[in-house]
Amino acid sequence: MHRVIEAGEDVIALEVSGKITGADLDAMMDRLDQAMAHHEKVHIFVETRGIDGIELSGLPGYVARAMPLFGKLTRFGRVAVVADQTWVRIGTRVESAVLPFISYKTFEPAQREEALAWVKGAPSAA
């Protein structure tokens, strides 16, 4: 399941938990398409909580919609992933290594507010 978090027009912010369905993936892609239609750079904030899996029947449609994004990778700005599961943080780091021109950061749940501020472009408190 997913829930939209209000974070600004050029920021897609979502909380994702449990089982991710095809409807969830469609809604996320709709939101991304809308943001990209109005902004040159789009930033992503994803907070995951106890991901149980992805509904396999929704994957073909998602992959078909996601493939054209490879031609738009330069339009992604900051990507923050807050995850309570180590495997999600590791997966994000691997994705970051594969896409080094996108600014990725991973965070633990206690760093949620820091992550959201960073993805919105707020100056660092450090």
Overview of the structural elements:
The protein has 4 helices and 5 strands; from the N terminus they run ββαβαβαβα. The N and C termini lie far apart (34 Å). With 126 residues, it is α/β, with parallel strands linked by helices. Helix 1 (22-38) packs parallel to helix 2 (59-66). It has helices at 22-38, 59-66, 86-98, 112-120; strands spanning 2-4, 11-20, 42-54, 76-83, 103-107. The protein has a 5-stranded mixed beta sheet with strand order 1-2-3-4-5, sandwiched between helices.
Compute the average pLDDT.
89
In spatial order, strands of the major sheet run 1-2-3-4-5
Quickly name the level 1 CATH class.
Alpha Beta
CATH fold call:
Transcription Regulator spoIIAA
Coarse morphology: globular
Share in β-strands: 25-35%
Rg over alpha carbons: 14 Å
Main sheet characteristics = 5 strands, mixed
Q: Would you identify the CATH architecture? A: 2-Layer Sandwich
Number of domains: 1
Structural category is alpha/beta
Low-confidence stretches: none
SSE string: EEHEHEHEH
In whole angstroms, the N-to-C terminal distance is 34 Å
In percent, how helical is the residue content? Answer: 25-40%
What's the total number of strands? 5
Number of helices: 4
